Amino acid sequence: MYSLESKDLHLYYGDFHALKGITMGMKKNEVTAFIGPSGCGKSTYLRCFNRMNDLIDNVRIDGEVLVDGVDIYQKSILVDDLRTHVGMVFQKPNPFPKSIFENVAYGLRVNGTKDKNLIAERVETSLKQAALWDEVKDKLKKSAFELSGGQQQRLCIARALAIEPSVLLMDEPASALDPISTAKIEELIYQLKENYTIIIVTHNMQQAGRVSDNTAFFYMGELVEYGKTKNIFTSPKDTRTQNYVTGRFG
Amino acid sequence: MKRYFHNFGERLIEGILALSGAVTSLTVLLIVVFLFKEGLGLFSQHPVSEGGVIVVNNQNPVKELSAKQIKEIYDQNITNWKEVGGKNQPIKIFRLEDITDYYPEEQLGANFEYLPQRLSELVSKQPEIIAYFPEQYLSKNFQGHPIELENITLGSFLGGKEWYPTIQPAVQMGVLPLILGTLWVSFGAILIALPLGLAAAIYTAEIADNKVRNTLKPVIELLAGIPSVVYGFFGLVVLVPLIQKVFGLPVGETALAGSIILGIMALPTIISVTDDAMRTTPRAMKEASLALGATKWQTIYKVVIPYSISGISTAAILGIGRAIGETMAVLMVTGNASVIPHTFLEPVRTIPATIAAELGEAPQGGIHFQALFALGCILFLMTLIINVSVDMVSAKKKANR
Ligand SMILES: Nc1ncnc2c1ncn2[C@@H]1O[C@H](COP(=O)(O)OP(=O)(O)O)[C@@H](O)[C@H]1O
Ligand SMILES: [Mg+2]
């Protein structure tokens, strides 16, 4: 069974047909990279899996989106619960104007965890997982805004990990970061794979090549090609994929 | 050519702007100077009522009394001279209309031409007397001495608990009830308006879709444009009787009525300022919260409200500012009793309402007139403090970004 799956998924922003019948599945413990030119629908598709598109007016969805085999757009689904299973990291680091500790504890608190020791423990583990603990352990009470951009992004990853989701959706998580921070995050993705289903949207072909097991190429709202990363990059079947991965457009 | 024109135009506009800036500042300055000049004149005035004198027997050692003591004597709360530093003898109060108790009308003369003489006689014969009468009846060789009144001091003005600016023989210029009345009504207004305004702003900023919001906003702004008399009228006709009935009061004109009306009047400001503040919360911040499984409400009170808290404080302070200065509506519904309020269900009198109600009957340049200006100064200082706090809050907000 796939961890994440969509069947003939169509999405419309008002009259605009943004996703055109996408059918694909992603397995647990695998990293899938979404690539494609800007505006092809990568973010839109990604945000279907935690129903983040619900926030936008005039969005209509046809088809099925399944998480662990369950249709997440059926009425009985509690969206808040879904989002504790499907975590998300955004393109730009977006910490809350709170302390480092409170940023990581936020998800636990809103989901009803009261036990102080448990919270402290989870904060520490998550920061360690996000390879940030050593840098911040002495200033947990400091504002998250005092961190550098790369640290903030790892804080956001720690924040997502703290509530122990099973899926991690990452929308260009390193696009705003310097090479060193980027390398740290790639390393992190590699380690997190052990426990998570990970999707990473990226504009960077090398990055897709380094971190992902599978790659999906999107073009104008369609899934053009999906397969092992190695195959997509070395022997793409579709000419559009070939043009894109060789840098001829995009 | 074009360049020359450009430069000339720019200079001209700069000049006009500078000039209008200067004129505006000057006008404001002039108004403030005028206000304080008139207001401060009060403190060189004797609080004895316009054109009257207070006299006692020559044997009486009391030379000076405060306005408050005189009122206490005339209210018969002080009945013995020893209470005000004189001999141990009861006080005999004399008002001009009592003169017929002592002298038959024919002894006063047809046109009261003998009145000054008789008054002098009376005061010299009665060692216990205190007499108040118009200055014109004070004869040249009057047998008795006038009582000096202490000047009004800032302390007695601010701390005085009684405001009877036209009472005889000595006016009472204590503004504490008016200051407290203003604060009570404004505080009550903000207590009502802030939660309501916050709720409405949360609704318009976070919950309502664009269509609802676009119809609601103009309606709220319309609310700000209604003249305050209309609010006052509504308060008088609807609210006052309702309060009277609900609380079983003898009168419905209370601080509560004023607070409710002012609260309604402050709502538009509070809603639109809060709404604007909340809308500046970055979308990314709200999405981050929702993506962690927070509900919409959790996101609002854990992210949106903390993020816009300085905007909300600004809204509250602006709302108070609106309430403190409001005149007409308050005048109509608060009952205007100048007593220190103890509950919201008592009538109160605010500073602006006092000025509006009394200025017309206060003779220009007189003590009452100046006292009203001094009240204006107090009001000015109150709103100044408020404006400075708004500036401080918004400066802090900028520093936080
Ligand atoms: N909220 C929205 N309303 C209308 N159109 C949108 C909205 N968000 C995205 N789109 C459109 O949908 C298409 C896909 O956008 P997106 O998923 O962000 O692309 P990508 O992440 O691949 O760059 C784009 O053409 C974009 O303009
Ligand atoms: Mg995108």
Automatic annotation (TrEMBL), chain A:
Which CDD domains does the entry mention?
A: ABC_PstB_phosphate_transporter
Record Pfam families: ABC_tran (PF00005)
Predominant place of localization: membrane
SUPFAM superfamilies assigned to the protein according to its UniProt record, in alphabetical order: P-loop containing nucleoside triphosphate hydrolases
Task: Give the bilayer topology.
Answer: Peripheral membrane protein
Q: Which GO terms describe its biological process?
A: phosphate ion transmembrane transport
Q: Which GO terms describe its cellular component?
A: plasma membrane
Domain ABC transporter, first and last residues per copy? 4-245
| PROSITE patterns named among the record's database cross-references | ABC_TRANSPORTER_1, ABC_TRANSPORTER_2
Keyword field contains Transmembrane: no
Which Gene3D superfamilies does its entry note? P-loop containing nucleotide triphosphate hydrolases (3.40.50.300)
A GO MF annotation of the entry reads: ATP hydrolysis activity
**Where is it localised?**
Cell inner membrane
Q: Which UniProt keywords apply?
A: ATP-binding, Cell membrane, Membrane, Nucleotide-binding, Phosphate transport, Translocase, Transport
The organism's superkingdom is given as Bacteria
> Which PANTHER family does the UniProt record give?
ABC TRANSPORTER I FAMILY MEMBER 17 (PTHR43423)
Function (record text): Part of the ABC transporter complex PstSACB involved in phosphate import. Responsible for energy coupling to the transport system.
Would you tell me the protein name for this molecule?
Phosphate ABC transporter ATP-binding protein
